[in-house]
C-alpha cells in the first residue's frame, strides 16, 4: 500500500514537473475567492487594493505572472505579435462572461480589474463586460 | 507562376552580368510603423485559438 502510494506520488510529482498542473496554487485560489487577488484585463493577476497581503501571497502572484509573461512572450514571438497583444488575447478568453464559456476564469463573487484599471466584482446578475479590444 | 518566371529571368541576368553591387543606404531615422491602434482588435481575434491553447495547457497559471 505504501509502495503503491509512493509510486503514485512519484508519478504525480513527475507529472507536475513535465506537464502543467490542472489546478492553481491553493493559496492563490483562496485569495481569488476572498477578493484579495483578481484577474486583470491585461492578462495578468493583480492584488486588489485595500487588503493587507502577505509577502508569501505577493510572491506567489508574482511567480504566476512571471510564468504567464514567459508563455505570452514565447507565443507572441511565434505569431509575430507583441507580448501585450498575446496577453490581451488571453485576457479576452479569461473575461468571457458566458457561464458556458470553457475558459472563463472569473467566478461569480471574484474580483477583476477592467481595462480602465477599475476593480469590480462579478455578480451572478451582471455578466462581465468584455474589454473593448476583444472584438466579436 | 509569372513571378517565378520573372525571378528566374532576373537571376539569369544577374548571373550573366556577374555581381551587381547594390547599395542600400540605411535611413538616418528609423522608419516608424504605427498600425498598432488599427490592427489591434484584428490581431486579438486572430490569436483566439492560441489564447485558448495557452489556457488549456497551463491550468496551473490561470
Write the layout of secondary structure elements.
The complex is a heterodimer of chains A (136) and B (62).
Chain A: H1 2-18, H2 26-34, E1 37-40, E2 45-47, H3 55-79, H4 83-94, E3 111-113, E4 119-121
Parallel strand pairs in A: 1-3
Antiparallel strand pairs in A: 1-2, 3-4
Helix pairs in contact in A: 3-4
Chain B: H1 2-16, H2 36-46, H3 48-57
Structural shape of chain A: globular
Percent of residues in beta strands of chain B: under 5%
Q: Please describe the biggest sheet of chain B, giving its number of strands, its sense, and whether it closes into a barrel.
A: none
First CA to last CA of chain B: what distance? Answer: 48 Å
What summary fits the major beta sheet of chain A? 4 strands, mixed
Task: Provide a count of the helices of chain A.
Answer: 4
Low-pLDDT segments of chain A: 11-21
- Alpha carbon gyration radius of chain A: 17 Å
Structural class of chain A: alpha+beta
Biggest protein-protein interface?
A: A-B, 30 and 22 residues
**End-to-end C-alpha gap of chain A:** 54 Å
- Assembly category: heterodimer
- Inertia-based shape of chain B: elongated
Strand content of chain A is 5-15%
Structure in words:
The complex is a heterodimer of chains A (136) and B (62). Chain A has 136 residues and is of the alpha+beta class. Chain A has one domain (24-134). Chain A is 46% helix and 10% strand. Chain A has helices at residues 2-18, 26-34, 55-79, 83-94, and strands at residues 37-40, 45-47, 111-113, 119-121. Chain A has a four-stranded mixed beta sheet with strand order 2-1-3-4. The longest helix of chain A is centred in the middle third of the chain and has 25 residues, at 55-79. The radius of gyration of chain A is 17 Å and the shape is globular. Chain A starts with a helix and ends in a 15-residue tail after the last strand. Residues 11-21 of chain A have low confidence and may be disordered. With 62 residues, chain B is an all-alpha fold. Chain B is 58% helix and 0% strand. The longest helix of chain B has 15 residues, at 2-16. Chain B is elongated and about 55 Å long. Chain B starts with a helix and ends in a 5-residue tail after the last helix. In chain B, 11% of the residues are buried. The mean pLDDT of chain B is 70. Chains A and B meet through helix 3 and helix 4 of A and helix 2 and helix 3 of B.
